[in-house]
Amino acid sequence: MSGASDESRSLRKFLRHKPAMISFVVILAYVAVAAAVILGDLVSVEDCERRYGPKSTPGFGVSQLFEKRLQDLSWYAEQIEQKLALRQKLKRRLQSRGVEPTNEKIEQELRGLRIGNLRPADISAEDFQIRLDSLWNTVAELDEFDDLNNPGSDTTTIERLTSAAEGQMRSLYAEQTPAEARHRNLHLLFGTDVAGRSVFLRSIYSIRVAILVGVVTGFISVAIGSLLGLAAGYFGGWVDGVVTWLYSTFASIPNIVMLMVLAYMFRGGEIDAWLNDLTGDRFGWLIGGTLDETLIPVFVAFSATFWIGPCRVIRGETLKLRESEYVQASQVMGYSRVRILLRHILPNISHLMLINFSLLFIGAIKSEVILSFLGIGVQSGASWGLMIDAARDEVLNDFFWQIGAATALMFGLVLAFNILSDALQDILDPKHV
Amino acid sequence: MWAYVLRRFFYNIPVFMGIVLLVMLALRVRDPVNGLLGKVKTEQEIAAKRMELGLDKPFVQQYGIFLKKLCTLDFDEESWVNRGQTVGEVMQRCVGPSLALTVPSLVLTTLISVAIALMSAWYRGRWLDKALVISAVLGMSVSFLVYIVFGQYYAAAWLPDQIGMSPFAVSGYEPLEKDGIGTYVLKHWPYYCLLPVLISVIVAMGYDTRFYRAVMVEESGRDYITTARAKGASQPKVMFVHMLKNAMIPIITRVVITIPFLITGSFLLEVYFAIPGMGKQLLTAVVEADFPIVQAFTAVFAAIYIASNLLTDVLYAVVDPRVRLS
Amino acid sequence: MTVSTGNLIRPKSPETPSVALSVRNLSTSFRTDRGLVNAVSKVSFDLHRGESVGLVGESGCGKSVTSKSIMRLLPEHVTRYGAESQVQLDGENLLTYSERQMRALRGNRIAMIFQEPMTALNPVFTVGWQLDEALRYHTKLNRTQRKARVVELLDMVEIPNPDRRYYEYPHQLSGGMRQRVVIAMALACEPEILIADEPTTALDVTIQAQILRLMKNLQERTGTAILLITHDLGVVAQTCDRVVVMYAGQVVEQATVRELFHDPAHPYSRALLQSIPQSGKKQQGKRLATIDGIVPSLFDMPDACRFADRCDCRQDLCVTDLPPISEDDSGRSVRCHFPVSDSSSTRSEV
Fold first, then answer.
1. What is the rounded CA–CA span in Å between residue C134 and residue B237?
2. pLDDT in tens, chain C (350 residues)
3. What are phi and psi of C107, to 5 degrees?
4. Sign of torsion over alpha carbons A392, A398, A402, A408
């Protein structure tokens, strides 16, 4: 029986367990980031989707390869050029409607251009054109070289030209304040993905998803599992029969098949419609948008499969406890069943609930990858699953920044939880194999 | 023992019926007819299709029909998407590739994990054991998908660069029937299946090694080990005879329990390596709302699961003289 | 019945020196996370041929570590033996033996019986197989000879239907039966030395008596020297010739059973004797004596007398200096600054 002294002993053991403490701190750090994303709007969905630069730039600043440098600076120049090109189209369109074309529209268009926090320089459209022309001249000179990646004796010339082109490219954009520059460096810390989105921001936003999925599914599954397990173990009889049947049934369908079928159910929008009918307007307000925009399908899919584990364990433990001497003594003393359940059995299975929560947390984070692949995972924003899945082609082109960032962050969290679960098991449930 | 097996069998009938019910209900949340017909369709066409597929009947009746088919092992229903093919034919086609992937990975994983666990237990508390335990936890903390992505990268991009040829395919499969068994075993299987098998072994190894090590450590602390050593048994004798036979009970349980997940467990691998196994087929069927395939496959998986649970109990009684099935 | 195949196993050496096993200055330490822990400190005693010696002390005093050190059954990579430590068998120090050399001795010349008959046997092998094992390792007998020997051993330890029991698994036997099997297993190769680590603790009293009687009989027949480890002085009184009393990893007193029970010299021995209930004496209304205080922690052993904290006759010297071992001509020794003299000791008769 775990009395108060037992609990404090466990706590002391835990505090002395160095790896567990470190893991705990790491997890807290992740949770803090997630909380900052959810409550403090540290990274928004829009930040995840916005372009921060050319596609597939490596992290920590610029690429060392001349070809990639050339591509990147050309991209920045083209952004300006595209906006300028709009002028011609606009001019023609306005003229066709018989309206006098003004430069204001284009200027407006250009001012509105944002690449991360990068703005175009505060110059006229004509000046842009001049600077662009000289830039393209430099680029044309560079194009003379056959193989930029293996320049041989021409290295210094190419280096000079590339730097010059980069300087000319920078002149197209407004000067950045040091704070802005720092911000931008941070955004490009892990480079960009294939759509030019910031890998850093996306992987940070993913922490929110991971923690949310872990906490919610862990909590729901443990709650359902414990409730059914307790009822089955304690009341026995037909309750036990039903619960056993229920978990045998759910356990007999392979996990992944169940996820697939659930994915199918959610994909059509019928459930959305049905829920909306059922709840009227209140539904949208409750979850903020359609099912696709939230993580609700993920929670449902995981909870439907994850509750079996805790249910089985807790049913077994409750059965054992019910036969134990002190519970039987309480029965003899005439305590009510509810009191026995709450006072004697619940405290003695709480450690199992904790351990199971920790295990399910890991399971949820790791399964999120599979869900993303099945298409019922995260739909908007980012998740590690989406990032790893998206990185498959990048890896074949020797670009490891996206998969690296997602894997590293996920690895940190899962490892911390693995160590924590082990420690919890050692301390709270030492008999377990 | 047979009485026990029979009783367990009967006990599992409601479980099996529950599974079928659950899957059929879940599938019918959405109306598949719209998707099955082309873009242009009339009300009459929809109604006709519905009638043809038997979806117009009340659910209870549909459920009854399918259960009856299962009882009579009738897998002759036609696939809704691949017209002209029966469920049985589709299943037959997919079993081979699935087994080619799953059986080798189960055998390899178990052998390697048990060997490593034994090594770990042998050097218990010393640096090798600690290193193995740490690598198992590290390995467990990396996503399955990352292993696949890097596996494909090394085999398809890095390795060919190094040795000038590509020993592994990134995707695809050649069935056994195509060139006979010799070519299959020597050429096709290693080319298409070895890499996914290796990946799944690496993924599963962390979990299995940890489990088996825990079992071994538990066993190595038992009194009978000391008794055996006091009799003059050598360390290998103690480990491979005394300990391993006791550890066989949890090992067998774990292996048999994994069997049903074998077919679906390699699901991600099948999809990423484009191997036309049961997992891949099932995913396609779910996406295309091919109800007969989904229902039949799920029922078969569930039956395998239930059968392997039963097998575990029986094997238990075979290995452990203390266990009596009654 | 006599051990008919006994001479097949190993010819006994003709000259038999009287000391079978000699433990000298045995110190055993374990490497732990919190540093080196000394579990046994400078333990010395002799075991003579055909003799039974009781190794007595409360749990955690180092009895079992001592016995496992003799057998070298402790996990080697965390165990350290002191530099002067010696376990002598035929003049050779077992502590310097290789694992291979040790293996040849274990179960052959030195055998061991364990406390828990329930778990000491391997549950997945038959009784016969497990009895056969030691014979396989240490003798050149063939399969049929071994089978005969095993059946004979089972018969020797008074197990009925040995032919049938041969094929049974441990779980089919009762606790007493299993302990008989364990004893038979230890005696399979006719060891010179038998270490019995609490062989009867897990059994109920009637079975206990049977097992002890059996061991005594077998010893008379085979001439094996027995080191009996126990916390039960009653068992010692029944079976042993001499007693070694251990406290907190040290030997505090060595004496014959008679001397110890009639005239304990160490305050701890005396306190131990007073704490056993005695039947047949007028003791109603008298409380059983207990020893107050606790054993010092292994991590924090005093450099003085380790029993000083709990001793009734403690004096200043006791808490400052480690008492030397004083030994008289008869081999009786005591580790105490102020041994209890004959007159002051409370006589207790058994």
1. 12
2. 344 444 444 444 444 558 889 998 899 999 887 788 888 888 889 898 888 999 998 887 888 899 999 999 888 888 889 888 989 888 889 989 998 999 999 988 999 988 887 788 998 899 999 999 989 999 888 999 999 999 998 988 888 898 999 999 998 998 888 888 998 898 888 888 999 988 887 778 888 888 888 888 888 888 889 999 988 888 888 889 999 999 888 888 898 888 888 888 888 888 888 877 766 555 555 666 777 777 777 777 777 888 887 887 778 888 888 888 887 777 788 888 888 765 444 443 33
3. 80, -10
4. positive
- Give which of B213, B204, B203 is closest to B117, Cα–Cα: B213
**Cβ–Cβ < 8 Å for A387, A204:** no
Å from A254 to nearest chain B CA?
6
Number of other residues whose CB lies within 10 A of the CB of residue A116: 19
State pLDDT tens for residues A93-118.
Answer: 777 766 665 666 666 767 777 777 78
Angstrom distances, CA of residue C192 to CA of C9, C114, C196: 13, 17, 13
For residues A401 and A92, give the distance between their C-alpha atoms in angstroms, rounded to a whole number. Answer: 44
- Cβ atoms of C194 and C113 closer than 8 Å: yes
Instruction: Extract the tokens encoding B285.
Output: 């069927």
| Mutation choice for B interface testing from C77, C99, C101, C122 by most B CBs within 10 A | C122
Q: What burial letters (b/e) apply to B126-146, b meaning 16+ CB within 10 Å?
A: eeebeebbeebbebbbbbbbb
Are C and B touching by the rule of 3+ CB pairs within 8 Å? yes
| Chain A residues near residue B150 by CB distance under 8 angstroms | 395
Residues in contact with B28: Cβ distance below 8 Å, sequence separation at least 6, in sequence order? B59
Letter string b/e over residues A328-348, b meaning 16 or more CB atoms within 10 A of that residue's CB:
eebeeeeeeeeebbeebbbeb
* Chains interfacing with C (3 or more CB pairs < 8 Å): B
In one-letter notation, the amino acid at residue C245 is V
**Phi-psi label, residue B3: left if phi above 0, alpha if psi -120 to 50, beta otherwise:** alpha
Q: Which two tokens stand for residue B286?
A: 């779910």
- Nearest chain B CA: its distance from C240 CA (Å): 23
Task: Tell me which residues of chain B, numbers 241 to 260, contact chain C at a CB-CB cutoff of 8 Å.
Answer: 242, 245-246, 248
Element (H, E) at C56: strand C52-56
ipTM above 0.90, yes or no: no
Neighbours of A133 (CB within 10 A): 10
Q: What are phi and psi of B175, to 5 degrees?
A: -70, 160
With touching defined as 3 or more inter-chain CB pairs under 8 Å, the answer for chains A and C is no
